[in-house]
Amino acid sequence: EDQVTQSPEALRLQEGESSSLNCSYTVSGLRGLFWYRQDPGKGPEFLFTLYSAGEEKEKERLKATLTKKESFLHITAPKPEDSATYLCAVRDNYGQNFVFGPGTRLSVLP
Amino acid sequence: DTEVTQTPKHLVMGMTNKKSLKCEQHMGHRAMYWYKQKAKKPPELMFVYSYEKLSINESVPSRFSPECPNSSLLNLHLHALQPEDSALYLCASSQSTGSAGELFFGEGSRLTVL
Question: Mean pLDDT across chain B, nearest whole number?
Fold first, then answer.
């Protein structure tokens, strides 16, 4: 059975203090690993898809990387508007579902 | 802006009411999903439609009844709900259930059952 864990559960950063969020996964054949950002009371917003180990994607202050067992979301010089819950999800080669991790709640203080 | 549109954004209903949540996408996607999300929890899959046919029902109580009238529309009919059904209901779509593409979510419908 596919499993996704994320750490830390919550993270508080000062504005400009770079850090990384972790997503560890167990899947029987990875079809894709996905990162989403979710603001309170809103639907998750798609950020990145990673397909194979060694792949990297960047968007503004965010950079996602992938290994065979985990993915990292690196946040460089974060701003208060980066505060949100970041969700990681995987999809395997056999199922129709996306399996989500519990998320990391990020707070960036001015 | 999300290309998956959900209505209504907020819904308050009594336990004896019948209401519906609606979802529309115009991305040409052939897979559509309903998720339920409680506070501080990840989205939890309820139903998957693939090419307008129900392909996954995650043992959801029959008081929730999905419907896919065409490839762009997805409804969730609600009847005799319980207060514990209060949650954010998310509609999503993807290219197909067999593709490697990502899931796109709507803004959600916040449901409160009194």
Answer: 93
